[in-house]
Amino acid sequence: MRFGDSTPFFDVEYDRKISLVNSFNSILEFDDRHFSLSQSLAERNIKAEVATEEDYVLMAMINMYLFDNELKNKEALDLIAKAKSLDIYPSINIFKQESIALIRLNKLSEAKESLINYKEALIKEEQNLTSIMEGKEWLSTYNYLNSEREWTAKMINKVNKL
């Protein structure tokens, strides 16, 4: 590569070494609504074959934030299915994002099942959390889990009425 060359740098070994940094930065970029940069970082992990569930779920979320059509919603669901198949360190967010994609695809009974799985995962997380009960981090996590359970209950109610 020459100075001033605009060709993107890609080295599989390098990306494998920094994959956790790519994942972390991808989340930060997503939170800042820099979706193309977030996607690029997650894709680097996928190309380097070191992606985790988090990378695939993030890619699905980007798809659903940027597009709302059948093709992109199916792509998001495929990415979520890939995340579920990895079983490296499953995230409860998988069920939430899966339910959103399924609602968009009008697969309401499957969406309800995902929402119920999400609700159960939230309850389990809260039970795990109560065993440590320490400090500010505990409280913010508890509040997050509680707000997610509320969101899930409301979504199940809405799906029942669709």
Overview of the molecule:
The chain has 162 residues and is mainly α. It has a domain at 52-161: Serine Threonine Protein Phosphatase 5, Tetratricopeptide repeat, CATH 1.25.40. The protein is 77% helix and 0% strand. It has helices at residues 12-17, 19-31, 35-47, 53-66, 70-86, 93-104, 108-130, 135-161. Helix 4 runs antiparallel to helix 5 (70-86). The protein is globular. The mean pLDDT is 90.
List the helices and strands and how they pair.
Layout: H1 12-17, H2 19-31, H3 35-47, H4 53-66, H5 70-86, H6 93-104, H7 108-130, H8 135-161
Helix pairs in contact: 2-3, 2-4, 3-4, 4-5, 4-6, 5-6, 6-7, 7-8
Write a brief caption for the model:
With 162 residues, the protein is mainly α. It has a domain at 52-161: Serine Threonine Protein Phosphatase 5, Tetratricopeptide repeat, CATH 1.25.40. The chain contains 8 helices and no strands.
Observed structural traits:
Serine Threonine Protein Phosphatase 5, Tetratricopeptide repeat, globular, 77% helix, 0% strand, 162 residues, mainly alpha
CATH class of the domain at 52-161: Mainly Alpha
Q: Residue ranges: pLDDT <50 for 5 or more in a row?
A: none
Order of helices and strands: HHHHHHHH
Our estimate of the beta-strand percent is: under 5%
Question: What is the architecture of the domain at 52-161 at the second tier of CATH?
Answer: Alpha Horseshoe
Instruction: Report mean pLDDT, rounded to a whole number.
Output: 90
**Quaternary state, please?**
single chain
Rg, Å, rounded? 18 Å
How helical, in percent, are the residues?
over 70%
Structural class: mainly alpha
CATH topology label of the domain at 52-161: Serine Threonine Protein Phosphatase 5, Tetratricopeptide repeat
